[in-house]
């Protein structure tokens, strides 16, 4: 059985690292993140695992299987946080993986497949404005040149930050895992949204991870005096921006069944005076879905609506594509494994999309993947008030462990000793 006291103690210890009076600050490749990965490494070694850090800063711990030639079953998450973040995002996924290995050791259960625990580097975009560097490097989805120009808020280059961490940035691409290194990857994470908490359900089986298509839109009209310009003779750039925002929301609502959302998260107005009709606005648009087709429909609607707005309001509108990432579907077999575990344990669950990105979406380039959510109290995340009750975390660990055992295959002919490290 999962040892509740041990889970709590481990969470409390790692929760002290990077804790401030304004929440967590354990940024990627920082001194605090290193302290967290050092603590994690020590705990893994105490559990009999072999541990290594790859060229991207990912920490990978292996519990050897009785058939070491078989591909490993991967589990884990990340230990870095955002500015003023919470103690649960990412961290519980790493600690869940560690506790599973400890529990297998306690029960002398050995598996045929090795089990690899991943503590991914730089999952959060907080430091460099670029997320999931570690898992993208593992999956071969980024090259050194793609991120070579990144700097943090203090102007420090990613190369210098790597060097301080004892890493050689020029070797980043060596982190890519060999083909067929993993048979499956599974991650446990807090939901970071209100659905499970609102429905009082303990487990969300993720069916897909949404990916964003992002634009900047510049709407140019004509600045004019707010008192002397008749309403029917204005070229108000802000009104144009407002129409884009409202109509985009309406279209996204029509696609809600596909988990599609659209957000205008930033608007700049020029010249920005109370008595001047706005002559120019800049919008940043984020459209996400777990359905490529649904997201494409919203994007097409936006393109068509901008044409309409140009003609109807005599505005000049430039729309620039910033990024267009494909959504990732979870493997049907891994979804079934999670759902079977919930049914066998009589644990309530629903299928649920993930609107936030996670390392799992990159691991899908390597192997079948799956993910479960546990509730976020009040739907709060990336905030000091982020919280998940300990019993909910334990339930998640039990479901994840059942799935790991199903995939890693228990070797009934052997008994594990301490951890059978490589």
Give the topology, please.
Blueprint: H1 4-15, E1 19-20, E2 23-24, H2 31-46, E3 50-53, E4 59-63, E5 72-78, H3 91-106, E6 109-111, E7 115-120, H4 133-138, H5 144-147, H6 158-164, E8 182-190, H7 195-199, E9 203-209, E10 211-220, E11 224-225, H8 237-254, E12 261-270, E13 276-277, E14 280-289, H9 292-313, E15 316-324, E16 328-329, H10 332-344, E17 349-354, H11 360-363, E18 369-374, H12 390-408, E19 410-415
Parallel strand pairs: 5-7, 5-8, 8-18, 9-17
Antiparallel strand pairs: 1-2, 3-4, 4-7, 6-19, 9-16, 9-18, 10-14, 10-15, 11-13, 12-14
Polypeptide structure, described:
Keywords: Hydrolase, Metal-binding, Zinc. With 422 residues, the protein is α+β, with helices and mostly antiparallel strands. The chain has 2 domains: 4-209 and 327-415, Zn peptidases (Aminopeptidase); 211-324, Alpha-Beta Plaits (2-Layer Sandwich), CATH 3.30.70.360. 34% of the residues lie in helices and 26% in strands. The strands form 5 sheets. Strands 3, 4, 5, 7, 8, 9, 16, 17 and 18 form a 9-stranded mixed β-sheet that branches. Strands 12-14-10-15 form a 4-stranded antiparallel β-sheet, with helices on one face. A hairpin with a 5-residue loop joins β3 and β4. The longest helix is centred in the last third of the chain and has 22 residues, at 292-313. The radius of gyration is 24 Å and the shape is elongated.
- Derived from helix and strand composition plus strand pairing, the structural class reads alpha+beta
Number of helices: 12
Question: What is the second-level CATH architecture of the largest domain?
Answer: 3-Layer(aba) Sandwich
Q: Give the % helix.
A: 25-40%
Q: How many individual domains? A: 2
Biggest β-sheet: count, sense, barrel?
Answer: 9 strands, mixed
The number of E-state strands comes to 19
Could you say which overall geometry the principal axes of the C-alpha atoms support?
A: elongated
Briefly note the CATH topology name of the largest domain. Aminopeptidase
The share of residues in extended strands comes to 25-35%
Q: Uncertain runs with pLDDT below 50, 5 residues or more?
A: 417-422
Going by CATH, what is the homologous superfamily of the largest domain? Answer: Zn peptidases
Kindly report the average pLDDT value. 95
CATH class of the largest domain reads Alpha Beta
Question: Kindly, what is the distance between the CA atoms of the first and last residues, rounded to a whole number of angstroms?
Answer: 25 Å
Round the Cα radius of gyration to an integer and report it: 24 Å
């Amino acid at each position: 059985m999962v040892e509740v006291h041990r889970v709590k103690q481990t969470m409390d210890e790692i929760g002290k690292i990077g804790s401030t009076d304004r929440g967590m600050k354990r940024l990627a490749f920082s001194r605090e993140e290193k302290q967290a990965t050092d603590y994690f490494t020590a705990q893994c070694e105490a559990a009999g695992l072999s541990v290594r850090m790859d060229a991207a800063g990912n920490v990978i711990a292996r519990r050897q299987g009785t058939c070491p030639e078989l591909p490993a079953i991967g589990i884990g998450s990340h230990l870095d946080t955002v500015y003023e973040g919470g103690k649960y995002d990412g961290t519980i996924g790493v600690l869940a993986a560690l506790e599973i290995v400890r529990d297998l050791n306690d029960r002398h259960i050995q598996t045929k497949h090795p089990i690899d625990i991943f503590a991914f580097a730089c999952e959060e975009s907080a430091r460099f404005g670029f997320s999931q560097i570690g898992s993208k490097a593992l999956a071969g989805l980024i090259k050194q040149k793609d991120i070579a120009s990144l700097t943090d808020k203090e102007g420090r280059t990613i190369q210098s930050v790597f060097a301080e961490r004892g890493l050689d940035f020029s070797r980043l691409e060596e982190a890519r895992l060999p083909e067929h290194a993993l048979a499956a990857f599974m991650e446990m994470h807090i939901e970071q949204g209100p659905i499970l908490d609102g429905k009082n359900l303990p487990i969300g089986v993720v069916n897909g991870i949404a990916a964003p298509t992002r634009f900047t839109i510049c709407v140019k009209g004509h600045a004019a005096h707010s008192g002397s310009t008749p309403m029917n003779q204005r070229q108000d750039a802000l009104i144009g921006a407002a129409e884009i925002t409202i109509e985009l929301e309406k279209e996204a609502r029509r696609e809600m069944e596909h988990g599609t959302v659209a957000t205008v998260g930033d608007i700049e107005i020029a010249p920005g005076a109370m008595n001047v009709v706005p002559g120019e606005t800049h919008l940043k648009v984020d459209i996400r879905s777990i359905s490529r087709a649904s997201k494409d429909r919203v994007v097409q609607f936006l393109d068509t609506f901008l044409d309409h707005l140009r003609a109807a309001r005599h505005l000049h509108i430039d729309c620039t594509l910033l990024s267009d990432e494909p959504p990732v579907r979870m493997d049907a077999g891994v979804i079934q494994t999670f759902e079977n575990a919930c049914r066998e344990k009589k644990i309530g669950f629903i299928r649920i999309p993930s609107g936030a990105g996670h390392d799992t979406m990159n691991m899908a380039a390597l192997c079948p993947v799956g993910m479960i959510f546990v509730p976020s109290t009040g739907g709060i995340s990336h905030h000091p008030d982020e919280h998940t009750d300990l019993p909910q975390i334990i339930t998640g660990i039990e479901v994840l462990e059942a799935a790991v055992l199903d995939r890693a295959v228990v070797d009934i002919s052997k008994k594990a000793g301490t951890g059978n490290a490589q």
